[in-house]
Design a protein that fits this description.
Length: about 450
């Protein structure tokens, strides 16, 4: 025996939670990536229909990620307090909420699928294909939301390995079914574009079934003295919905900014919008990696605060916050060096168009320079989400959007600043958020001890 002890919330714990979380975060983009590769062989019109419908479906799932993040924040506190049954009960209630919201999404989606796709794609074959795909895909919405809720409570009890397996199983099934259902086999010609939507729904149902099975196992194993409540609990559902409201509003702020940025970039011509899209997709990629660290921070901070009884006991949560901030900064610096070094070759992987390649530098160096800032901001987002400080994050995100990103986006259109103006707006957005979350974390006001944040 060496006599050394491992620090709770140290590097090993962060990696243990963050690494399996990364494939889960990449799951939805991977669904669409497989669909794109398979449907692309049908021709330009079906692929365009998938692009329109896929964006719309992604908006639904993006806005409802509170079922993961909000549930983790609440479940992790109970887990830290030694109340595993209460933590899993949060997952049970989040699952009821997922089913209710999912059924609502199906109903409303069927009503608006055609007018919304026509608004985006115009009339004709593209809009018709998009509407048909979306109507089928919407039946998978409750399954996607059950999966989000399942990820939430399982992260809360610091289990990110089983969710990874469940989601990978669904992705693998979709990858196998999609080519068969789209293109057929033998004398059967397949279902075309609609086949990819059917493959996704089947795969999403399988993943959701695994999470429901995990809940059933937890309920069966729970001690009789501390059972997991199956029936809907209005008080818990109300608390989850309140946090969900704040996180949805925050997410809408992000969407308004990035959709506006793309719309304005398009006004500067095909070269500008294509260059913006390439760099933006790289931003989304690095955000997935940084979000994995933030998820680890959520689970560890929530658990540490749940175990605390007084303000003096929150020292472990503060230590986790400091540690993940350093890791986020280090990871951001590594990304900055890597993307700077890859500048001569990486843009050429995405395009050979001379105009696009000539335009990319206007966004590339902003993107590269922002990496360390993003590393810290995303890490501290995870800390504050783990602490249940969703209202603060909602307000400061909206202030950063309204006071930094959106004004500069639209001023760049008025004054012809192009991508330089757009990415200056993103830089202002990130700097305002850095100051806000940095001040909040330093103040310690987020470190509220106890199993449930008031």
């Amino acid at each position: 025996m060496s006599g050394t002890t491992r620090t709770p919330g140290g590097a090993r714990d962060i990696l243990r939670l963050a690494v399996p979380a990364l494939p889960v975060l990449a799951a939805e983009p991977l669904y669409l990536l497989v669909d794109t590769a398979v449907v692309g062989r049908l021709g330009a019109v079906p692929l365009a229909g998938l692009a329109v419908a896929g964006v719309l479906f992604a908006q639904v799932t993006t806005q409802l990620t509170f079922l993961s993040y909000g549930t983790t924040a609440r479940a992790s506190r109970f887990y830290g307090a030694g109340r595993r049954s209460a933590a899993v009960t949060e997952g049970m209630q989040a699952t009821w909420l997922a089913v209710a919201v999912g059924l609502l999404v199906i109903g409303l989606g069927q009503l608006v699928a055609e007018p919304v796709t026509r608004a985006l794609a115009g009339s004709g074959e593209i809009a018709d294909g998009a509407a048909n795909w979306l109507r089928i895909a919407l039946f998978g919405a409750p399954m996607v939301l059950i999966t989000l809720a399942g990820n939430g409570w399982m992260r809360g009890v610091q289990d990110t390995v089983r969710p990874m397996r469940y989601v990978i199983a669904g992705n693998a099934l979709s990858a196998v079914l999609c080519p068969f259902l789209v293109h057929g086999a033998g004398d059967w010609d397949g279902w075309g574009l609609e086949g990819s939507a059917v493959a996704n729904v089947i795969a999403q149902t399988v993943s959701a079934s695994f999470f429901l099975w995990a809940l059933a196992v937890e309920r069966r194993r729970a001690p009789a003295s501390d059972p997991i409540r199956l029936a809907p609990d209005t008080a818990v559902l109300r608390a989850q919905a309140t946090m969900g409201r704040d996180l949805v509003i925050r997410s809408l702020g992000f969407q308004a900014c990035f959709l506006s940025a793309t719309a304005v970039a398009a006004r500067f011509g095909a070269g500008a919008v294509a260059a913006h899209q390439i760099v933006l997709q790289l931003w989304v990629f690095q955000a997935l990696v940084l979000d994995a660290v933030a998820i680890a921070a959520q689970a560890l901070v929530g658990s540490a605060l749940g175990a605390a009884r007084t303000a003096a006991d929150t020292v472990r949560a503060r230590a986790v916050a400091a540690r993940v901030t350093r890791y986020g900064l280090l990871l951001g610096c590594v990304f900055a060096v890597v993307f700077a070094a890859l500048y001569p070759v990486l843009p050429g992987v995405f395009t050979t168009d001379a105009l696009v390649l000539a335009t990319i530098p206007a966004a590339w160096w902003f993107f590269t320079a922002l990496q360390p800032i993003a590393g810290v901001v995303f890490a501290l987002d995870g800390v504050l989400l783990g602490a249940g400080d969703a209202a603060f994050l909602r307000t400061t995100t909206l202030l950063a959007a309204l006071g930094g990103f959106l004004p500069l986006i639209w001023l760049s259109l008025v004054f012809g600043w192009g991508l330089v103006g757009i990415w200056t707006g993103l830089a202002a957005f990130m700097l305002i958020r850095l100051v806000a979350v940095g001040w909040r974390t330093y103040s310690g006001r987020w470190a509220v001890p106890g199993a449930v944040r008031a």
